[in-house]
Structure formats: structure tokens, C-alpha cells
């Protein structure tokens, strides 16, 4: 009666990963982007698509890496033990949050256009220590072959 628990763990892990991929795919495909302009859906203060940015020592983790042109509200959380801030720079625009002490969070509303942006921490030297990530907005199809136009998907 020795049930190999490790196997169950592995299976769960795989299932979880597959689910995450499915959810991500659904989120990307189902977001038409044009359906919420006419309906007043309660967000009246100009807030856009919500994105979470975790600022740790020394890494930036975004809740999404897919961006379309539009307005985004980044919620920056400092989960590290140093002061951090969030800066989003590109397409001639520069947006910087206030500097956050450990445990603090803030929001930063940014309008993104098609193009490349650099997301980084402007606090001394943190960018060079790894607090930097590039995002691409648009437009152009992803090179990964991730098709959201496949017609055979019954969902
Ligand atoms: Cu930092």
C-alpha cells in the first residue's frame, strides 16, 4: 500500500501548468478590446487595464507580458527589502512612480502606444542589478507561433 505520492505531485504540477496556459490563452483571445468602450462598467476614474508589477530585490515581475495599445494601471508593490520604484519608458514617454519603501504599493497609470517599452526600477543601480524588463506593445504578431486565431477551438 505504498502509493507513490511523488507521482501525484508531478501530475498536479503538470495539470496546474496546463491550466495556467489555458487561462492565459483564454484571456488573450477573449479580450477583444473594443467591447468596453460604450458600456459604463463602473470604472469611472480613467483607470485602464490592471497590471501588477512586483518589485523585489532585484527583479520586476509583471502579471502580464502581453500589451496592446491602450491605458494601463500598473499596481507596483515593493516586496523586497530595499526602496524601489517603477518606471516605464518608451515611445518618447516616461512614467515614473513614487519611490516605495518595503511593503508599500502604489499605482501608475500609463497610456501605451505600439512599440517597445523598458520597465525598470530607477533607484540607484537597481536596473543594472536585474530590475529591468522589456515589453512590446502592439500590433505585431508574437514570434512564438501562439495563434489566437485558430478556428478549431470549440470554446
Ligand atoms: Cu529597485
From TrEMBL:
Pfam families per record: Cupredoxin_1
Residue stretches spanning the membrane: none
Feature: compositional bias, Polar residues: 143-155
Superkingdom classification of source: Bacteria
Key word Metal-binding present: yes
Residue stretches making up the EfeO-type cupredoxin-like domain: 54-130
Gene3D superfamilies reported in the protein's UniProt record: Cupredoxins - blue copper proteins (2.60.40.420)
InterPro entries: Cu_oxidase_CS, Cupredoxin, EfeO_Cupredoxin
GO-annotated molecular function: metal ion binding
Disordered as annotated region, ranges: 133-155
Keywords, sorted A to Z: Metal-binding
Name by which UniProt lists this protein: Copper-binding protein
Organism in which the protein naturally occurs: Streptomyces boluensis
